[in-house]
Automatic annotation (TrEMBL):
Name under which the protein is recorded: NAD-dependent epimerase/dehydratase family protein
SUPFAM superfamilies reported in the protein's UniProt record: NAD(P)-binding Rossmann-fold domains (SSF51735)
Domain of life where this protein originates: Bacteria
Chain ranges of the NAD-dependent epimerase/dehydratase domain: 6-247
Organism: Ruminococcus difficilis
Amino acid sequence: MNNKTIIVTGAAGFIGANLVKRLLADVPTAKIIGIDSVNDYYDVRLKEYRLDELSRNDSFTFIKGNIADKELIEAVFEKYRPDVVVNLAAQAGVRYSITNPDAYIESNLVGFFNILEACRNYPVEHLVYASSSSVYGTNKKVPYSTDDKVDNPVSLYAATKKSNELMAHAYSKLYNIPSTGLRFFTVYGPAGRPDMAYFGFTNKLVNGETIKIFNFGNCKRDFTFVDDIVEGVVRVMQGAPEKKNGEDGLPVPPYAVYNIGNNQPENLLDFVQILSEELVRAGVLPGDYDFESHKELVPMQPGDVPITFADTDALERDYGFKPSTSLRDGLRKFAEWYKEFYM
């Protein structure tokens, strides 16, 4: 990626900011263009904190704007002519999609369409984009494989992410645009998203509130530390699907989809136990904190699924990478960051 121009959308977001930080450190000759609307879906101070760190580097250019703004995206692509595009901008969250569907159509469908159109008009070497483990819906077979049929989403968020994969496939087929979709599994870590369970639980416990553990604690999640996600993205960026023609002489879509997950689902009750121990260790909570009185087991929420579990064999086969950060190590880093940032 030396001397390449790379556009990262969602650059103020959790994964986006960590990716840009990694690229700036690893590829000093690359020019990184970050785009983000910096909306108030969650605490803007977190986004500003991430951006402040990135903006100190001269190789990084930040553009505040919405990918749903077609004219803006066209102008950015025309000016910078990117070699690689990583689309991480999206309206995230399963539960929020039930009450605010418009935001998902705007960002995840209209916005992604604008990115695809720009990649068609200003051809790129590789488009990498975020999909989600949510596309698997209530898939009964585990671990989830990218070969599984995923036609039964249980939330609008999941439906938009599956739509992204279909749209990318169409553009790869029609215009020979190399594209790779990445299905992320429950990403966590320092300076993460406050709407994620580990962050929300911490805020509530600090405030002496009760945390709700869904499906009476019988949920399992394939928690993936953000550094592992970024490592996977960086490797995939450098390995675009090959352009080639089929027997009919027409292009075979240079298209791929991979899971990036820890390949090790954790029970929610075990997760809460480890989180509580690390919060005490970091000094976020006192050693005598009564966790039992602050836990409530409740039924499953609409749009939720009982388990997420990534089959990462394809990622390991094609890119020699398998996420490996343990939940305790990852939550320890989060707890230490939380203490420093909020206390």
